[in-house]
Amino acid sequence: MSTLRRVALDVLKPHDPPLLEFTERISAVERVDAVSASLIELDQEVQNVKLTIEGEDLRYEAVEAAIGELGGTVHSVDQAAYGEYVVEEQPTPQDG
Amino acid sequence: MSTLRRVALDVLKPHDPPLLEFTERISAVERVDAVSASLIELDQEVQNVKLTIEGEDLRYEAVEAAIGELGGTVHSVDQAAYGEYVVEEQPTPQDG
Amino acid sequence: MSTLRRVALDVLKPHDPPLLEFTERISAVERVDAVSASLIELDQEVQNVKLTIEGEDLRYEAVEAAIGELGGTVHSVDQAAYGEYVVEEQPTPQDG
Amino acid sequence: MSTLRRVALDVLKPHDPPLLEFTERISAVERVDAVSASLIELDQEVQNVKLTIEGEDLRYEAVEAAIGELGGTVHSVDQAAYGEYVVEEQPTPQDG
Amino acid sequence: MSTLRRVALDVLKPHDPPLLEFTERISAVERVDAVSASLIELDQEVQNVKLTIEGEDLRYEAVEAAIGELGGTVHSVDQAAYGEYVVEEQPTPQDG
Amino acid sequence: MSTLRRVALDVLKPHDPPLLEFTERISAVERVDAVSASLIELDQEVQNVKLTIEGEDLRYEAVEAAIGELGGTVHSVDQAAYGEYVVEEQPTPQDG
Amino acid sequence: MSTLRRVALDVLKPHDPPLLEFTERISAVERVDAVSASLIELDQEVQNVKLTIEGEDLRYEAVEAAIGELGGTVHSVDQAAYGEYVVEEQPTPQDG
């Protein structure tokens, strides 16, 4: 079977726990090697965050469960990379 | 004969299976070494996804069949690279 | 004599054979080491494709003949590189 | 447990201490290996500064405390990277 | 004395010989190691081409003579690099 | 204690001494390893210059004193990097 | 003392000597290791050229004298780098 190596998630989270604690908790999920979180937008009730998560054989269900336990929801899965390595996308003329 | 090393596809897929499972299934196709999938656009019924697939001697028919079994369709083949290595395109003044 | 190492072509082709088969056939031309094809535009009757072809001593006539046998025509030769290596163009203020 | 490796902060600070002394004091916080500070905007009373801080196992509380002792406040945590290495975010089509 | 290592030329040429043969002939000039030619613009009578030529001790007169023998003219010399190596220009605030 | 490794300064200077002599004098300040100066703007009385200064343990006071002796003033400190190495800032979505 | 390693000059020159001969003559100045010249603009009487000159311990007076002997004038010194190596400027938010 094929392994998940990178996933980019668009996440909505409450202000509490704050971004640092939130990200630390995701990075503690089994098989996660590294996580970057960037603040996209914030309003009074939620923060919109982009998470980029890498690992050698990520378990997405565990990542999603951890996000849910922290009060967050995955708004969309923006990118996923499976296989023996991560293919970087190349821009093509059709990207327009 | 010449081998297919990379192909970039513009794919329409239903919401189910979700992007992760969809991509994992493509990555399990024979000869596929790695796949990245990016969400381009989504509406109520379909997701528009860009797939970049690499392998040493890809069988496109098998990839296309797997996409079809998952309820997706290839809207267009945006890029294909054949040969001993992948030539990266260079921008030229005629690209406009 | 000097050798052709890379050529970028703006090609018009019918929908059949499709882009993958078309590109595979070009990659099978003698002395071609690698080909990338990108879809630029398509309408009901033709596809406009950018081909980037590399080899150690390319025979352009053979490439052009193969394109013609597949029903395609070279709309323009957008870039050509000859010599002991491929010089990458540098942007200059006059490009403007 | 997972370690904090990089954090990017949007900070408001008074004019005194000036940017150099302010940054030096942050760089003296335990576990901080390196800090860059850039001036974003300044008005009569405050400076808006972007701080990028790296270390092997950063203690954010200590960084935040040092900023507070210098009269500054963290306006937002713009980016955080945890884990075995720093994942650089890749742009995705959904970034808009 | 100092040696010419790279020159970028803005050239007007007739349609015949075509770009490939034209470029091959330039690449056959003594001391030329590599040439890239890009099509900038074409109208009914002429093609406007950017030539980038490299060599260890280029003889510009020989290059210019070859262009003239092929019916072309050098519209402008856009860039020249002399010396022990090629200095790449860095953008400066005054370029703007 | 932590060391200053790079500082970027927005400087106003008179026309005399000219940019080259001015920059040479800054580069002669103790602990300065390298300086680049770029002209941003000039009017009849002053030149606006961006100075980027690197060293292993820069003494900012000495740099500022040298600028003052040459008739210049530091308009703003635009960037400062302290620590064991120079952290390059990464763009974040909040920069926008 | 500190050494000049790179200088970028905005130069006005007559059409004669042409750009190639002009650049070659500058490259023959003592201590100049390499020169690139780019055409910025030309009108009936003068050419506006950007010169980038590198060397291990450049003598600017000799460069300027050579430009003057060739009928040119230095309109502005756009960049100068002194020291043990060339610091490349980093963009900062204050660059605007």
Question: What attributes does this structure have?
Answer:
4-stranded antiparallel sheet; alpha+beta; 96 residues; Alpha-Beta Plaits; DUF211 domain-containing protein (chains A, B, C, D, E, F, G); DUF211 (chains A, B, C, D, E, F, G); homoheptamer; 42% strand; MTH889-like_dom_sf (chains A, B, C, D, E, F, G)
Description:
Seven copies of one chain form a homoheptamer. With 96 residues, the first copy, chain A, is of the alpha+beta class. Chain A has a single domain, classed as MTH889-like domain (Alpha-Beta Plaits, 2-Layer Sandwich), CATH 3.30.70.1340. Helices cover 20% and strands 42% of the residues of chain A. Chain A has two helices and four strands; from the N terminus they run E-H-E-E-H-E. Chain A has helices at 19-27, 60-69; strands at 4-14, 34-42, 46-54, 73-83. Chain A has a four-stranded antiparallel beta sheet, with helices on one face. In chain A, strand 2 and strand 3 (46-54) form a beta hairpin. The termini of chain A are far apart. The relative contact order of chain A is 0.32. The mean pLDDT of chain A is 94. Chains in contact: A-B, A-C, A-D, A-F, B-C, B-D, B-E, C-E, C-G, D-F, D-G, E-F, E-G, F-G. Chain A binds chain B through residues 1-2, 4, 7, 60, 76-90, 92-95, and chain B through 6, 8, 10, 18-20, 23-24, 26-28, 32-39, 42, 50, 52-54, 76, 78-79, 88, 95.
Number of strands of chain A: 4
The SSE order of chain A reads: EHEEHE
**What count of structural domains of chain A?**
1
CATH class of chain A, please?
A: Alpha Beta
Note the overall shape of chain A: globular
What is the CA-CA span between the terminal residues of chain A?
34 Å
Q: Based on the coordinates given, report the CATH architecture of chain A.
A: 2-Layer Sandwich
Enumerate how many helices of chain A there are, as a single number: 2
Could you tell me which chain pair has the largest interface and how many residues each side has? A-B, 24 and 29 residues
Uncertain spans of chain A, ≥5 residues at pLDDT below 50?
none
Relative strand content of chain A: 35-45%
CATH superfamily of chain A: MTH889-like domain
| Main sheet overview of chain A | 4 strands, antiparallel
Rg of Cα set of chain A: 14 Å
- Order of strands in the sheet with the most strands of chain A? 2-3-1-4
CATH topology of chain A: Alpha-Beta Plaits
The quaternary structure here is homoheptamer
